[in-house]
Design brief:
8 strands; elongated; alpha/beta
Length: about 200
């Protein structure tokens, strides 16, 4: 799993990759006389955590191939990351339709991939910190960016059920939302056939 890095990490990666490629090894001393020791440690820790370099010996590192990194930066991670959360949540709206329809309706692509997640209003700080810590852009109510992002929907109380290892709005609530929008007619029909209708 690769993550984005700040500009200082990108510049350091560019420097060592242009000199060593992905085959030769290098050490942290490559940045001696360029940055201070604390900054050098920060750079290497950042690149290791983001998966851009790998440790191959006691003090030896190797760059991961740039094509590998950039072709996977927009991989879908939200469903796996959210399973590590310690607070309650529920996928809602289009995201609930996606889950309950077994992905017969998919709202996402690598270019733009929103997830709608209900969270308790009192936990909003936790969720912003959680997604920021996992480098997943997040917004309250509305927003957009390239790739995956979360739209947090703060609520005062929360009910959710389990589906495929995730927490999601109930089938009944999701079916009602799908029934009210012609765009989800295929997903609505699929859900009714698989799980039965709700009056």
């Amino acid at each position: 799993m690769y993550r984005e890095v700040p500009s200082f990490g990108m510049r350091a990666y560019s420097l060592v990759f242009s000199k060593y490629g992905s085959k030769e090894t290098f050490s942290q001393s490559e940045l001696d006389w360029v940055v201070s020791e604390p900054m050098r440690k920060k750079i290497f820790a950042t690149l290791l955590r983001a998966g851009w370099i790998e440790k191959v010996g006691r003090s030896a590192y190797r760059c991961v191939e740039a094509n590998e990194i950039f072709s996977h930066l927009l991989d879908f991670r939200v469903y796996e990351v959210i399973k590590m959360a310690k607070k309650p949540y529920a996928f809602t709206g289009l995201s609930a339709v996606e889950l309950w329809s077994d992905y017969s309706y998919v709202q996402r692509g690598r270019k733009r991939s929103p997830y709608f997640v209900k969270v308790l209003r009192k936990d909003l700080g936790y969720w912003k910190g959680f997604f920021n810590g996992n480098q997943i852009p997040n917004y309250v109510g509305k927003g957009s960016t390239i790739g995956e992002f979360i739209i947090l929907v703060p609520v005062s109380s929360l009910k959710a059920v389990g589906k495929d290892g995730l927490r999601v709005d109930s089938f009944k609530e999701t079916l009602r939302q799908a029934r009210g929008n012609e765009m989800y007619s295929y997903a609505y029909s699929y859900m009714k056939r698989k799980y039965g209708g709700v009056s």
